Amino acid sequence: MDKRDTNSKIAELRDFIKDFRIARGWDKYNDPYDVAAALSCEASELLELLLWKKNEDVQALITAEPKLKQRLTEEVADIFAYILVLSDSLNIDLTDAFFSKMRKNSEKYPVINGTCARRKRWLE
User: How much is the pLDDT for 115?
Assistant: First the structure.
């Protein structure tokens, strides 16, 4: 498997994490509540790394401190792994769910004249 976003498939990633967890005996911990709790913990670890930092500060920090970029990368990967596990245990097709939700968001937040119509109303 080519390990880049441009060539990977969700099904291959899901199969990989499933095999990884089975080989370690972790598959017995696929209860949706427990996986969601673990996902929340990982998201909190990501948030802690970014807490009180503006975008330009983060960009400067990851350039100056490669270890921070590595830690951010690892936390995002942990979150993604738990999303794969959770979607598998709940039998959710991630690709279908993603595009379905984006269609709903497009209807909810239409773009009119280059601006989100809903945002424009909030600013008025």
Answer: 73
Residue 121 banded pLDDT, cuts 50, 70, 90: low
Residue of 28, 10, 31, 6 lying closest to 97 (CA atoms): 10
Buried b (16+ CB within 10 A) or exposed e, 44-66: eebeeeeeeeeeeeeeeebeeee
CA separation for the pair 30, 103 (Å, rounded) = 29
Q: How far apart are CA 36 and CA 79, in angstroms?
A: 10
Amino acid symbol at 106: S
Q: What are the beta bridge partners of residue 112?
A: 115
How far CA 39 is from CA of 21, 31, 55, 102, 113, in Å, comes to 15, 12, 24, 22, 38
